[in-house]
Amino acid sequence: MTLQAINYTQVPGQLKCDDSVFPSVIVNDGSVKNLSDSKAWISQNLPELELELRRSGAILFRGFPVDSAETFDTFSSAFAYRNFTYKESLSNAVRINFTERVFTANEAPKNVEIYLHHEMAQTPVSPSKVFFFCKKAAEEGGATPLCRSDMLYEELVKQAPALAHDFASKGLKYTTHMPAADDHESGQGRSWKSTLGVESKEQAENKLADLGYQWKWKSDGSLQATTPVLPAVVDLGNIKGKQVKVFYNQLIAAYLGWKGVKENPASAITFGDNTPIPVDGLELVASLAGQFTFDLAWQDGDVALVDNYMAMHGRKPYSGERKREVLVALAMN
């Protein structure tokens, strides 16, 4: 059996990024016929795939034999990254697991937009890679926007250098509210027990203390927790002769999508020194992001591998009778 070389293709709307495009798109020419072929093809091409991912920030695999949570698990596992289970994360988005490593992207209602963010950047522990698998595309809408965070930060430095400096030097703190019970109607509705993986308030407080959080219990049994100082900008070092810094955070998602935050941003996000972030700065970041965003319109069977440091992602609302099913696996390397 002769496996294909990497078959790159172009799709409308790709961004030009120095000597690469965003996202990179690889199409199966038909020679990868089953999971065994897929594993062999990934192993054979892994050095180039990893180089392309570092250069581009995201790779879309189209036409490969992936059609279920189990086959997606096998496909994503073939990259040999260390698994990052949702159970061990500190995200408070509601998800449903299919296998130990594969779960739903988000259980928020289809009319709810999930704004651009780096996966779990609002917590002290986050994955470095995000795999997406489209089991069923929506009838209308449901694209996954992908944004190059290095290009966004470069533009922010040009347009608002003082603000960019504050983000880089001060970092961010996030305050989240975790309900007493899972709320499936909310994109951020995972309870404090589920989020922290604990059974009691004492266990919750011990875990929060170990991670450097501050917290407050509310009269309805919910938990308000504030992170230690987390980065807003991350230096990825030298990539092909260029020093790359990325706008690595949950700022846009928090400002535009978290309940009540647009009306009172400081209730959920501040600089690391507890000073408020200027609203015009938040608006500028959200506006600039659109210039560096590609809307990935899913086809059934698509798999995307996203470098969680280089690229933000989100979810557009969708409609129609066909339920959109996009699954996720997280990894560290």
Automatic annotation (TrEMBL):
Q: What is this protein called?
A: SyrP protein, putative
Asked whether the UniProt record includes Ligase among its keywords, one would answer no
Query: Where in this chain does the record put each TauD/TfdA-like domain?
Result: 34-328
Q: Say if the entry is tagged with keyword Oxidoreductase.
A: yes
- Write out the GO MF terms: 2-oxoglutarate-dependent dioxygenase activity
InterPro entries to which the protein is assigned, alphabetical: AlphaKG_dependent_hydroxylases, TauD-like_sf, TauD/TfdA-like
Query: Any idea which UniProt keywords this protein has?
Result: Oxidoreductase
Q: Which SUPFAM superfamilies match?
A: Clavaminate synthase-like
Q: Which cofactor does it need?
A: Fe(2+)
